[in-house]
Design a protein that fits this description.
mainly alpha, 248 residues, two-stranded antiparallel ribbon, single chain, 4 strands, 54% helix
């Protein structure tokens, strides 16, 4: 490369935005350092100030783009992360006996499915009536108990619908079925009626709330105040009585 003309080396370095001064050997060494590299991989110390700044900006853009993708993935997986945290906390709160029961159930289920894993055409073995997972097979028994799916929560307001697990039960209070049932009863679906599933309990609570609102209603006869000629503050009823008696 040192046999190349000095001006040709200068033009090649300028085209890459690199420093083009120095001897023939220095220019050749700088140009040789770019061999097989992309523009953003060139050492910034070999570039002119503006070009070095552009390289740094490109690098910062790539870093910012990577950070944005990480934040986006964090948002998308926030629900899964929260569910995992809750599952770990539930698992840590279990007693030793509960862990042993789940392990025994899982071992029994694995033994029952051992001979049927390779045959998808046979009927699915599901004696415990477990929910099906994404693969069309019953979910593991330990996962079934972990999410509390073995507990049923009936709701009379929803027409006797039964919800499996506490998560589905809590979520249904904000869904259309429960809201429609409350609307048919003439009761607003507010936070006061959370965890109430019986019609009688909801009606009694609504009557109690209405009485409380009536008691808190402003009563002008008792609460409206007047001032007499002496500057005394009295209620409206007292003021009218004194006025009729000519005592003001």
């Amino acid at each position: 490369m040192q046999k190349t003309d000095l001006n040709r080396l200068k033009n090649a370095l300028k085209a890459l935005g690199m420093k083009c001064g120095g001897t023939l050997e220095e220019r050749a060494r700088r140009l040789w350092a770019t061999r097989g590299k992309r523009r953003d991989e060139i050492d910034p110390s070999l570039l002119v100030g503006a070009q070095a700044s552009l390289v740094r900006q490109d690098e910062e853009k790539r870093i910012a783009e990577t950070e944005a993708r990480i934040y986006r993935l964090t948002e998308l997986l926030s629900e899964q992360r929260q569910d995992t945290l809750e599952n770990v906390q539930r698992k840590q709160a279990r007693t030793g006996q509960e862990r042993e029961e789940e392990e025994d159930a899982a071992d029994a289920e694995a033994a029952a499915h051992e001979d049927d894993d390779d045959d998808d055409d046979e009927a699915i073995y599901n004696p415990k009536n477990l929910p099906l997972g994404w693969d069309g097979k019953p979910i593991p028994y330990w996962l079934y108990k972990l999410h509390g799916l073995n507990i049923n929560y009936p709701c009379e307001i929803c027409g006797g619908t039964v919800y499996r697990g506490p998560k589905a039960f809590q979520r249904h209070f904000s869904e259309w079925r429960h809201a429609h049932g409350m609307r048919c009863l003439g009761i607003p679906n507010t936070a006061h009626f959370a965890n109430i599933t019986q019609i009688d309990a909801a009606v009694k609570l609504w009557e109690k709330l209405k009485k409380g609102k009536t008691a808190e209603k402003w009563k002008p006869d008792a609460e409206e105040e007047f001032e007499d000629t002496a500057g005394n503050v009295v209620s409206r009823k007292t003021y009218e009585d004194l006025s009729r008696q000519g005592l003001l």
